[in-house]
Amino acid sequence: MVVVRAGLSPERLTRAGAELADEAGFDQVTLSALARHFDVKVASLYSHLKNSHELKTRIALFALEELADRVAHAVAGRAGKDALTAFANAYRDYARAHPGRYDAARFRLDPQTAAASAGVRHAQMARAILRGYDLAEPDQTHAVRMLGSVFHGYVSLEAAGGFSHTDVASQDSWAWTLDSLDAALRRRATP
Amino acid sequence: MVVVRAGLSPERLTRAGAELADEAGFDQVTLSALARHFDVKVASLYSHLKNSHELKTRIALFALEELADRVAHAVAGRAGKDALTAFANAYRDYARAHPGRYDAARFRLDPQTAAASAGVRHAQMARAILRGYDLAEPDQTHAVRMLGSVFHGYVSLEAAGGFSHTDVASQDSWAWTLDSLDAALRRRATP
DNA sequence: TGTATCTGCCTATAGCCTATAGGCAACACG
DNA sequence: CGTGTTGCCTATAGGCTATAGGCAGATACA
Question: B182 vs chain A: nearest CA distance in angstroms?
């Protein structure tokens, strides 16, 4: 009987899990499904992962990292509304291209893990965007929260199909929303 | 052997499911848990519900209805920023008081069910709020989407603990955000 | 009040999920 | 070329959804 080892590793499992998430949804990412994918028995996965929670955590960290990279790249060299738009689009584009990973990025991490994750970079980049708007604390924190809310809210409602009832194009509402945010932030600038 | 019937019904199961959702999370609402709660065998529930999807759908419809009632009550007799604030607070207060039901209200319904749900009232009320801002189409649709995004985004990030890293009070950011939205909408008013 | 029907909850079963314990063979290294 | 490590295995158990079929409590009607 010719038996070749599958060559599993936490990294390969995470990668495959992320792809599965995009195809079938983050909640369909199970050890069973992954075992099937690698043509391996479920128990074998436990040599590489403590449990299914670790798998989800790893996918979440991977997605946060990947998304942060894209946002950083999009924002580089831009300022003001230009930077705001690039930031927002990077977010939305990622969620549309990788819905499962985007969901994964919202997976609730325990505080320590979160503190060591790319989530920190996300917060830093949001504050960097706001440099163009001259906001003093606590306004800057308020603005970070508002931006995060709008982007996450829009993207998740859009993904849920909430914007397909009328024939107003979602793209137009998105541009309109970014305009409004830019104006709102400029209005808040410290004199 | 004294055997009394448990007196189950779709309504009682939905109610109990909603309560369980608030206590343990919407994803913890299972037929098993419900059967334990009523001290009944799981199979018995299938006389009242087609399957677990129907249970979740019923809880979702219940939550949408309840939330719409609260919003309607909060908004009644108000206009302009006053109405906007009442609308927003009704939303946020509900999500904080009933996190599981709020999650349930976001459960994805099939189009027919959604069309017959209180979700329709939510959309109508959002448009009613905007009457105070004199927006012509398609701006009104854009505004509905933006408001929905901010409210849902804020509430869900707040619930996920995303706003507890700094010591800026979430309440202040919320008020600041509503101020900004009000200003942004007034700016869009048709001249 | 007796009896027939209906229906609510039951047992039994099966499939899919996570998880643990313990075994054997493929691989890597001296 | 042996020998130890480790990658994947079988076996097992517990929790979840779901279906089929059975019995007894509730109800309705003579």
Answer: 9
- What are the residue boundaries of the structural domains of chain A, listed by start? 10-188
Per residue in B42-64, pLDDT (tens digit) is 999 999 999 999 999 999 999 99
pLDDT surpasses 70 at A3:
no
Domain at B10-188, CATH homologous superfamily: Tetracycline Repressor, domain 2 (1.10.357.10)
Contacts A–B by Cβ distance under 8 A: 107
CA distance B92 to chain A (A): 13
Is the minimum CB–CB distance between A159 and chain B shorter than 8 Å?
no
Dihedral (Cα; A125, A129, A132, A137), 10-degree rounding: -70
Residue-averaged pLDDT of chain A: 94
Bases of chain C with protein Cβ within 7 A: 7-12, 16-22, 25-27
| Cβ-Cβ contacts under 8 Å for A64 (sequence gap 6 or more) | A105, A117, A118, A119, A122
Q: Is B177 on the interface with A (CB under 8 A)?
A: yes
- Give the span between the Cα atoms of B140 and A153, in whole angstroms: 18
